Amino acid sequence: MIEFLQQIINGVGLGAIYALIALGYTMVYGVLRFINFAHSDVFMVGAFSGYLFSRFFQIESIFGGVMVMILSMGLCALLGMTIERLAYRPLRNSSKLNVLITAIGVSLFLEYSFQIKLTKPLLFPALFPVKSFLLPGGIILSSTQILVIGMTLFLIVLLQYIVLYTKIGTAMRAVSFNPTAASLVGINNDVVISFTFGLGSALAAAGGILYALNYPSIEPLMGVLPGLKAFVAAVVGGIGNIPGAALGGLLLGVIETFVNGSPYSTYTDAIAFILLIFILIFRPAGLLGKVTVEKV
Amino acid sequence: MQHRPKTFLIGALACALGTSFLAPYLNPYYLDVILTVGINIVLAVSLNLVNGYTGQFSLGHAGFMAIGAYASAAFTLFAAPAIFPNANGWVTQAVFFLALLLGGGIAAAAGIVVGAPSLRLKGDYLAIVTLGFGEIIRVLLRNVDSLGGALGLNGIPFYTNLFWVAVWAILTIYVVLALVHSTFGRGFLAVRDDEVAAEAMGINTTRYKIIAFVVSAFFAGIAGGLYGHLKSSIDPKGFDFMRSIEIVVMVILGGMANTRGVILAAILLTLLPEVLRPVAEYRMVIYSLLLIILMLTRPQGLFSFRSNRPSVRTP
To answer: How many domains does one find in chain A?
Structure first.
């Protein structure tokens, strides 16, 4: 029982990071209807910019850690908006496949340009003070886990507030619902899409730093697998749906942690995809997604 | 080729036999590049049947390639020495042919297993499911100890030669073109252009999709077998998601449903990293930048010149 609870806590910690990345996928899919393959590399850039900024602040302090996170999120938001402006906007009216290939090109570009200089993995510093708490019953809860879960909750609530109660959030939902009608009522679609990329990329950067705090070895290809799994989480939750992405991320994190603790641990990387196939066969719109009917 | 398919086939096969006598005179490096080009043509043209002609976006081609590579390598490594002890000359060639057919056959069977459930899905969802199946196949292979686990299979005999690669490249092009240009094959295009209308006209869309999937998986398996017997060692990492992407890029760059363009793109994209070898550390950066620029400037594909062709509708 204790072990079960411990695994749940570890799983939620991992799932929270998946959720943060999944939010970026799901928001971009919501407004543009395409899979932003470069998102997992923005996640990687987030971890590296955290590494860079950590030199300017005192590490293992709350203030320094928060500043590093805010700066990295800002930098990645800029990166996401630049990618959208240069690579995706010129293809706004062409086939979705072309945008997909461009996204793959951007992803490869980020990965390989980082690989030129970084041939060895870097050790990510501990940004926040690290402590372990022994809960009654022998469950161990580390301060990093509390940080990851707390930070994710805070960001999801903030995001939900932006999307539901602000002007730009309303515009985002309008563009997602019907881009043509949105531009007819005076919404500047380009601004909204740019903002969505910035927001999603900032969340990916936060995810990257939190991931690096848990797994401190960072390298240019670190985003590929978490990125794919987070995308699966977004689809499982119902793509385009923000609470769905969070739910999918948590579910995937917990299942993966349990498989990792079982004798079948070598199959961990396949679990996400098996879950995905089951969800898509039995509930193609995802757990919280709306079922749409195709009209002729 | 559309008008005299059989003449084309026989002529091309004769050419393949002829050129294969040139192989000993070629520099081994050039020969290796040419063989890789041929294998990539088999992969790209077969994927084009699914992605281009049938309009189903598959991202799992490397998975089928992996199945073919492992099945045929396992056959030549474990089964063949037991069935044909001290084989040489023609017998080895026959063994290799059998191994390739076995690899293709098992890959085709996997095509049914993957295709049947996932073809109920459309567009992006299908892309993700095929990607997922590709990854699952890779993880499974990594866990089978008798197939070498994460280390893969080593010491596969070097059977792949210019003749076999040329024959299979020609056969793939022939089968895909003949299939698509036949009365039966018009159904593939109908499924791509408008699935609902095709169904209303009495076309069994699921059946067409599965046939496209199985044929394409078969040739991917063959390509895998050729690849394994060329590189002499295979491991699950070599068939990852990036490998599928490479093939998809060839199809899209060539222009979807344009076999000639896809062949040219396969040649170009295999040669490009080789040409960029002198600037080794920057070559993948240049490759990715070229990919982005090409997509921005020629979104219809590099080798699509007919402007009146209706654009490929993507789901």
So the answer is: 1
CA atoms within a 13 Å half-sphere pointing along the CA-CB vector of A155: 29
The number of C-beta contacts closer than 8 angstroms across A and B is 113
Q: How far apart are CA B201 and CA B90, in angstroms?
A: 50
Q: Are B191 and B124 in contact (CB under 8 A)?
A: no
Is A91 touching B (CB cutoff 8 A)?
yes
- What is residue A123's three-state secondary structure? strand
Q: Is residue A288 part of a domain?
A: no
Which CATH number characterizes residue A60's domain?
1.10.3470
Instruction: Give me the interface pTM, i.e. the ipTM.
Output: 0.83
CA-CA distance, B38 to B19, in Å (whole number)?
13
A151 within domain boundaries? yes
| Helix, strand, or coil (residue B47) | helix
Q: Please give the residue range of the domain that contains residue A67.
A: 2-282
Per-residue pLDDT of chain B (315 residues; tens, 9 = 90+): 556 677 777 877 888 777 777 777 788 888 899 999 999 999 999 999 999 899 888 888 999 999 999 999 999 998 888 887 776 778 888 889 999 999 999 999 999 988 887 777 777 778 888 888 888 898 899 888 888 888 888 888 888 888 889 999 999 999 999 999 889 989 999 998 888 899 899 999 888 999 999 999 999 999 999 999 999 899 998 898 888 988 988 888 888 888 899 999 999 989 988 888 887 778 788 888 888 888 888 877 777 765 444 455 544
Residue at token pair 């402006």: A85
Chain A nearest CA to B261, separation (Å): 16
Q: Is residue A14 part of a domain?
A: yes
Residue A20 lies in a domain: yes
Q: Which residue in B129, B249, B291 is closest to A276 by CB distance?
A: B129
Is residue A12 within 8 A of residue A253, CB to CB? The reply is: yes
A186 φ/ψ sector (left φ>0, alpha ψ -120 to 50, else beta)? left
